[in-house]
Amino acid sequence: MKRKLLAIAVPLALGFASSANALVYSTYDGEVHQTTESVFAVGADAMAPMTFDFSLDTASYLSFEGFTSMSSVLVSLSSTSVLGGWLITPSSSGFSSMTSLLAAGDYSLSTMAFGDPGYYAFETTVTPVPEPETYGMFLAGLGMLGLIARRKLDAKA
Fold first, then answer.
1. I want to staple 74 with a disulfide (CB 3.0 to 4.6 A). Which of 3, 44, 112, 133 is the partner?
2. Residue 40, number of CB atoms within 10 A of its CB
3. What's the whole-number mean pLDDT along residues 103-119?
């Protein structure tokens, strides 16, 4: 949590310290998506359309959270076609969030900002979908616990 706040606070402070300079901080590098990736953009760069590329090794749930000081920021998710997107607005909580299930492959997040220059930030987190073998092992473990409990009850009787 502290690292996330630091990752947002430092670029924000630098951006407001010199409003003539624009700033974009991004951990997306076009490679395999790490557990968490993030973007922070302020100033003139926040108004320019940007694209952030990543790939997924396995089917995963992608969680998205974002906030902005501008009228709105449209973030679209695409692979070979547009798959969906998020509209980030300054809401009462300040965050817009959503979770999607994605197959393994290459993806892009594209941004389009509307309104007066300001800042926006978003973060995506991936969680792999459990394999069927995981569920099988879980059920086998429950079966073993049930067998042990039954043997203990039979031993008491």
1. 112
2. 23
3. 87
Tell me the C-alpha to C-alpha distance, in Å, between residue 56 and each of 16, 22, 40. Answer: 34, 30, 22
Q: Per-residue pLDDT for 78 more than 70?
A: yes
Contacts of 95 (CB under 8 A, 6+ apart): 65, 66, 67
Sheet with 23-26: strands ordered across:
23-26, 36-42, 119-128, 60-68, 96-102
Higher pLDDT, 138 or 2: 138
E strands in the chain: 23-26, 36-42, 50-56, 60-68, 72-78, 82-88, 96-102, 105-114, 119-128
| DSSP category for residue 80 | S
Q: Are 68 and 92 within 8 A, CB to CB?
A: no
Q: Are 114 and 70 in contact (CB under 8 A)?
A: yes
pLDDT digits (tens, 9 = 90+) for 118-152: 888 888 888 887 777 777 888 889 999 999 998 88
Q: 51-63 pLDDT, tens per residue? A: 888 888 888 888 8
DSSP structural state of residue 20: T
